[in-house]
Amino acid sequence: MPKSQKIAVAGGTGGVGNHIVEGLLELQSRSPTSITKVIVLSRSSTTKGSYIQSPSSPDLHAPIISVDYTSVSSISNVLSEHQIDTVISTLVGEPSQFIPAQETLLQAALSVPTVHRFAPSEFGSDSEQIESAPLYKMKLPILKSLREVKVRRSSSLLPFEFTKFVCGIFMNHLGFGNPKPNGSQALGHLRSFPYIVDISNGTADVPGDGNDKIWYTTAEDVGRFVAEATQLDEWPEESTMVGDVVTTNQVIEMVERISGELCIAVFRTHIPPFPPIFCAHIRVIDDVFLFIAFSGKKITPRYNTEAQLFARMDPNPTSWTGNHYLESFLSIVRGERVQKTSVLNELTSVKPMTVEDYLQKWWGKDD
């Protein structure tokens, strides 16, 4: 199968899509003959000449082109004009819009002879493994269509393959509320909200007892993994990737350790009150108190059993996202987010950031 050279990212103006565009442009700047064109499809009307710029190469950019996700011809005309060979979807939205938009995007791609690769909007835990969070079911129809197309095309002269990119939970959510001058960059292009551990407020809303393993990857590394995956000779149906695998209790321990600093104080009469501390050691020498402590961010966890998660759910949700937050916790407790492989870690040269490195960068003490 030919490698990808001309790539369209649907929904690439924000969120993980933006990181994928940047990852592709970064690879293009290093290897101009590998990727020759990157375009961004957007449902929003855009000013002519709008583009996403490469963070590392200011002269390199991806034009943003407005399309109608209810019209096959609107999309196919753009794909055909730019001779696109690979379509990567990062679309988001409520099921009634998301499902038909992805199907329209696929039909448009199939109508363009140059297109031979398609990646649906996955970019999280494996939607086919998750039973406890119904919202993930909106990702299933496109996978059924893709498998049917692959079988149909296998005996034709028009090759076709697809992959679903599975990355676990975005590590960037651990950066919510970062107080550093550049702290907003900890989130990347993702929306600002805490997930499980809210370091800025010193709390953790924990699925289960905190000992379930969670697969984390930064959105920036997802962009790099996807970019390098476009240069593989063949696409597996599932392209898993991971930056780190840790439990919530391990994250809490790392936060408290990394955000701390050593305190040494001497008092002749008494020890005054201190902020929350741990690892304290007190020695008395000639009636002098030598106080040695390691003070840092203290995280107060709230552990949730399945029964407690169900009790917190709204029986009559008014939003289309419903109880997704709590249902996603259930899927963790029930082991539905386990990634058994890390395909792209093995097939690409990406060296992803670990949770400890991420916490050290954004929550560690500055020198």
TrEMBL record:
Keywords, alphabetical: NADP, Oxidoreductase
Signal sequence residues: none
InterPro entries, per database record: NAD(P)-bd_dom_sf, NmrA-like, NmrA/Isoflavone_reductase-like
Keyword Kinase: no
Record's keyword annotation contains Disulfide bond: no
SUPFAM superfamilies per UniProt: NAD(P)-binding Rossmann-fold domains
GO molecular function terms listed in the Swiss-Prot or TrEMBL record: oxidoreductase activity
Domain NmrA-like: 4-261
Family affiliation: Belongs to the NmrA-type oxidoreductase family. Isoflavone reductase subfamily.
Protein name as catalogued: NAD(P)-binding protein
Organism: Dendrothele bispora (strain CBS 962.96)
